[in-house]
Amino acid sequence: MKRIWLILFGVTAIASCDKIDSKGQYLTRIPVFETMESVRAKATPISSPIAMLKTGKIYVYQDYLFINEPHKGIHIFNNINPSKPQAISFLNIPGNVDIAILDEKLYADSFTDLLTFDLADPASPKLLTRNKDVFKTVLQMDYINNKPDMVVTGYRDSLVSYSYKNKYSPYETKYYDYIAESGSGRGGSMARFTLANKHLYAVDQTTLHLFNVQEASKPVYVKDIKIGAGIETIFPFKNSLFIGSNTGMVIYDISTASAPVELSRYNHIRACDPVVVNDKYAFVTLRAGVTCGGQQNLLEVIDIQDLKQPTLKYSFALENPHGLALSDQTLYICEGKYGFKSFDANDVSQIGNKLLENHKEVKSMDVIAGPNSLVVVGEAGIYQYDYTNKAKLKELSVIPITKTN
Amino acid sequence: MALLGSLAASAQTKKYTNHNELSVITYGPAFLESGFGLHTFHGLQVHEKYAVGLNTGLDRYPVNNEGSKWFVPLSAKINYVEFPARKRSFFAALDLGYSFAFLNKDGSEENIAYEYRGGLLLNPQLGWRFKFRDSQKYWSLGGGYRYQEYTSRDTHDEVSRNENKYHLHRVTLQIGLGF
Question: For residue A175, is pLDDT > 50?
Fold first, then answer.
């Protein structure tokens, strides 16, 4: 009789489990990884014009428009007549995100490298210098082949197969994955370039990369300065550098251009914020949304007469502001899908209430006050306006952006 | 069915035997996530200590923390009784067969199609049986180990698919009635 209890007890003392063999396949887009050597070897700079699928930074230089297509290169347009801009060539720069032009030199990033082009013939820039490996934050691990220090040059559709084993027991709260395949990539940084006082300032999400361009054709790397997380925009004004982040604005003194000194930090609520500046005020737009993590859409007017103590003076509600530009006493603000607006900046205390024009059909992201035209980067294309009368824009032309399916 | 028929046909020379059990199917000591089984065995006493036959029934127990699944087991079973004449006797049994998973509804929701398939079943068992006074009927207490394979498949968009093959290991505790 004792045996029965022994059997019953013995049976319950064993702990069992489920063992699961999983296998399958799924369709996904996987990154194409390349080494920088391979990217550099393939460089074929100039080609004839190609369709523009997306726009990034735009530069107005003499009678030309240089339009960056992120990660691909620069579309060059002859803009001598802004009502009829002519595409003349395409400068292939893989991994290019930003450009800056000074003294007939074009500076562009190409993944980890800084390229310097000669613009003696703006229609056909010539590569002068390549500073290698100065933007190292772009490098990623190729997790598929387990190789470090690669860059992502594109994506391809792929059917990925996997198999792994799992074990489950209610007595153990962990799952054991012992042969698993998982993908994770980290994105690279977005450089923002600006030139001031014979120096090139390139910011990515956390760091200011400083180059001396005294000798314009040969940039010399100076140093990196950590400035904090969430850096979005950079705007030079006289001897100051205004850097917009998603938590505020940092002001640097660049009287000694190779040694920027932080003057002040103006912190506000979390949002993305482009900034433009004049002698007295910084105009900052804050944009809410997923990318920026904020809740408010605003125009803020900040008194910067004392650079060490920037003070918020006025705040106005907007719809979804992106880039902005100041031209004399007119402030132009891109309102994303809500259109393109202009405001009278004569009295900054009332600026948000003095709407001059609202072009609702122009879904806009950025604006540049060029010498011959006001250039607006929109969803549908690059718009150019005659803004001789700042309060009444006259549309001159639209360079279309080709929509891909 | 043919086997059962032929067993019934030879019942006049060999005695028909029957054992019905209710089981708790569990992972182990504390009855977290356990289920039940109902089994009925019909066989022939081929020897005073051995009986062979078919065992079938219904199982329902949780799998991989995903909820309970139904199984319809069908197995060949051999039963051994140590002292068939005594009131109390030790017994051992072994099931080998296949469980069907058709009671779990294949289905589809949105664009994902689900399918379930059964698999191999193996269930050795040990226990004691106790005869009722003045009768051949008995009741039993036992414990065993149950191994069950089963597969689930889901297909998304006709391209992406996932197949899980489960090897389930369980412990069973049974109470039974037989004659």
Answer: no
Helices first, then strands: H and E counts in chain A: 2, 32
The pLDDT, as a whole number, for residue B7 is 55
User: Would the CB atoms of A25 and B169 count as touching at under 8 Å?
Assistant: no
pLDDT digits (tens, 9 = 90+) for A125-154: 999 999 998 888 777 888 778 888 888 888
What was the ipTM of the complex prediction?
0.83
Domains of chain B plus CATH, in order, are 2-8+17-105+118-148+165-178 (2.40.160.20)
Q: Which residues are B35's β-sheet partners? A: B25
Note the pTM of the prediction, 2 decimals: 0.66
pLDDT over threshold 60, residue A228: yes
Residue A27: the pLDDT is 86
Output the CA–CA distances (angstroms, integers) from residue A200 to A194, A223, A255, in the order listed: 6, 11, 14
Kindly tell me if the per-residue pLDDT of A177 is higher than 50.
Answer: no
Is pLDDT at A283 greater than 90 in this prediction?
A: no
Q: Is residue A42 part of a domain?
A: yes
Interface of B with A in 23-52 (CB under 8 A): 26-30, 32-33
Is A308 within a domain?
no
CA angle B87, B91, B92 (to 5 degrees): 175
Chain B residues closer than 8 Å to A12 by CB: 26, 28-29, 143, 171, 173
Mean pLDDT of chain A: 83
**Cα radius of gyration rounded to whole Å, chain B:** 19
- Chain A CB within 8 Å of residue B160 CB: yes
Q: Rounded distance, CA B103 to CA B81, Å?
A: 34
A372 within some domain: no
Q: For chain B, which residues score pLDDT lower than 70?
A: 1-14
Tell me the nearest-neighbour CA distance from B13 into chain A, angstroms. 33
SS (H, E, C) B19-30: EEEEEEEECCCC
DSSP E strands: which ranges in chain B? Answer: 15-26, 35-45, 50-62, 68-81, 88-100, 107-109, 112-117, 119-131, 138-156, 160-178
pLDDT 10s digits, A55-79: 877 888 888 999 888 889 999 999 9
**Does residue A17 sit within a domain?**
no
CB atoms within 10 A of CB A348: 20
For residue B10, the Cα-to-chain-centroid distance in whole angstroms is 25
Q: Number of structural domains, chain A?
A: 1
Q: Which two tokens stand for residue A41?
A: 């070897």
In B50-79, the residues whose Cβ lies within 8 Å of chain A are 63-65
Give residue A150's domain range: 29-226
C-alpha B16/C-alpha B79 separation (Å) is: 13
